[in-house]
Amino acid sequence: MIGLPALYTFAGLVFAAFAIGSLRDRSNARRLGNAAFWGLLSLSFLAGDRLGDLGNGVLVLCLVALAGAGALGSGTPKTTRPDERTALSGKLGNRLFLPALIIPVTALVGTVAFKAISVGGEPLFDPKQVTLLSLGIGVVLALSVSMLWLKPPPLAPLEEGRRLIDSVGWAAVLPQMLASLGAVFALAGVGEAVGDIAGALIPEGSRFAAVAVFALGMAGFTMIMGNAFAAFPVMAAAIGVPVLIHGMGGDAAVIGAVGMLAGFCGTLMTPMAANFNIVPAALLELKNRNGVIRAQIATALPLLAVNLVIIYIFAFR
Amino acid sequence: MLVLSGIVIIVLGFMARLNPLLVVTIAALATGIAAGLDPIAVVSAFGKAFNDNRYVSVVWIVLPVIGLLERYGLQQRARTLIAGLKGATVGRLLIIYLIVRQIAAALGLTSIAGHAQTVRPLVAPMAEAAAEAQGAGDAETREEVKAMAAATDNVGLFFGEDIFIAIASILLIKGTFETYGINLAPLELSVWAIPTAIAALLIHGARLMLLDRRLGERK
Fold first, then answer.
1. How far apart, in whole angstroms, are the C-alpha atoms of residue A297 and residue A104?
2. C-alpha dist (Å) from residue A63 to A58, A72, B146
3. What are the pLDDT digits (tens) for B141-171?
4. Under 8 Å between Cβ of B115 and B171
5. CB neighbours of residue A154 within 10 Å
6. Radius of gyration of chain B from Cα atoms?
7. pLDDT single digits (tens) A156-167
8. Are B28 and A180 inside 8 Å of each other by CB?
9. How far is A118 from chain B (nearest CA, A)?
10. Average pLDDT over residues A150-155
11. A72–chain B Cβ distance below 8 A for any pair
12. B 10-69: CB under 8 A from A
């Protein structure tokens, strides 16, 4: 059965190529730092399951030390100039979109169809991971088609990929790091402590205040944790279930569904949700690291108010 | 209460603009030690969680494909396509993208688009070309328009995906409530994602139309 290990090996090889490319790039004064950073990430993908928990922990500390010491620079892999690109895009035309569309189309078809493929009674693809696996297969297909059609120098995709990963830099592992922080928070009981405080804020008997603390608490705690999934069980335990559902007889479906969406409004407003807010700022080469968050606040705040009102009205019909 | 020290470190660290990786790691170590774990156990727990969450960083494998197509002028092509359309504006373009993203996410197709897959190579350059066609091509506008393209992707994803019954957040809500003896069908939950999805479309769509008006005035 093809599962995550195959995908991790592929990713590990891609990061290894970024590391080797960095090492050879003499235009980057900090090339050793880049090579060490992508090399360690490659090691994590290729051999993470054999390093042991403490080994992985040390690997993470090394990644952090490199990023914290400012050891990463930006390489300048050979690529085309803007005027060459304009000329090429004129020559190749709208067919250039086709390889780019192979990835989403494969993800779409794979998510629906891969579960059905089985060899000798066993599924060919791990049914729990079809979406990620079809993303990987889409990448391989798109890469093969582009290589056959465009005939670039053989190392071009890896070097172009390195150009992009260097523009993202250390932020590339921030989402994974934040997910790991969530696990440590859960272990230490941070959620329960926050829940106790939120629960103590509600004045006796005020339905509006209870709904407001629940919705704003979902958004606020999501902003701290960077993830509504971490906030939901805590706010449900502190206020949602004991006060709103059991205490005031609210409709659990409305409170659960719209409470989660109130949390998503928080996701739009925090640098802790790095993969949605910080990584795109790096990918789009914005000057302001918080540019995406700034663009989202005026949508998030009114929408949070709408969610609060939806719970207040429809959970207590 | 000492376990909350990690949250304080995060808030202060981000405000002081320290490297976020450093801030997150110090917060994790402080939280674990405050909870009475020994430092080795905290580092091990952090390492195990990092290893278990590798799927989060797998998305970077798309970069070689996107980079290769950029080498042959993908972004320029996206700009040309929009510049050739009469009446294309930043607002109209992003409203269409918002609706498509919401509908796709509501059908469970969350990973067919994203910042690396679609926003950088396609949506952002298209939005920049539309802004130029509207007569606003200065650096400040480009920055604002690119940020808005990323924001629109997030809004479309977040406020579409919960309409799909088998998405992780719906299953998390169901699972959390089940531990309290409250049993809900995923469909009961997902219908209540619809009012917020409509509100998100109206609020963000209105902002995009206002952006169009402002770009017109900047001419």
1. 29
2. 9, 10, 30
3. 999 999 999 999 999 999 999 888 767 788 8
4. no
5. 8
6. 22
7. 999 999 999 998
8. yes
9. 22
10. 94
11. no
12. 10-11, 14, 19-22, 24-25, 27-28, 31-32, 34-35, 37, 40, 42-69
Contact (CB<8Å) B48/A107: no
Q: Which SS3 state, helix, strand or coil, does residue A228 take?
A: helix
E strands, chain A, in order: 118-119, 122-123
Cβ neighbours of residue A59 under 8 Å, at least 6 residues apart? A40, A43, A44, A51, B47, B50
Residues from chain A that touch B16, judged by Cβ atoms under 8 A, are none
Read off the pLDDT of residues A12-28 as tens digits, 9 standing for 90 and up.
Answer: 999 999 999 999 999 98
What pTM did the predictor assign? 0.84
- Chain mean pLDDT for chain A: 91
Q: What pLDDT sits at residue A179?
A: 79
- Residue A6 CA to residue A132 CA, distance in Å, equals 11
**Residue pointed to by tokens 């407003």:** A269
Interface of B with A in 116-175 (CB under 8 A): 116-122, 124, 143-144, 146-151, 153-155, 158-159, 162, 168-170, 172-174
A23 close to B (CB below 8 A):
no
Nearest CA in chain A to B82: A94
Chain A interface disruption, residue of B98, B158, B162, B194, most A CBs within 10 A = B158
- Kindly tell me the number of DSSP H helices and DSSP E strands found in chain A: 13, 2
Q: Give the separation between CA A152 and CA A160, rounded to whole angstroms.
A: 11
CA distances from B151 to A266, B61, B142, B156, B207 (A): 13, 23, 14, 9, 11
Q: Which of B128, B176, B198, B201 to mutate to test the interface with A (most CBs of A within 10 A)?
A: B176
* A119 strand-pairing partners: A122
Rounded Cα–Cα distance for residues B118 and A101 (Å): 9
Name the pLDDT band for B219 (thresholds 50, 70, 90): low
Query: Which of B22, B25, B77 comes nearest A97 by C-beta?
Result: B77
Q: Which helix (H) or strand (E) holds A104?
A: helix A97-113
**Across the interface, which of A142, A161, A256 has its CB nearest the CB of B173?**
A256
What's the rounded mean pLDDT across residues A287-296? 95
List the structure tokens of A112.
């629906």
Quote the minimal CA–CA distance from A29 to chain B in Å: 20
**Maximum average pLDDT range among A86-95, B62-71, B167-176, B203-212:** B203-212
Residue A299 pLDDT greater than 60, yes or no:
yes
CB of B206 less than 8 A from some CB of A: no
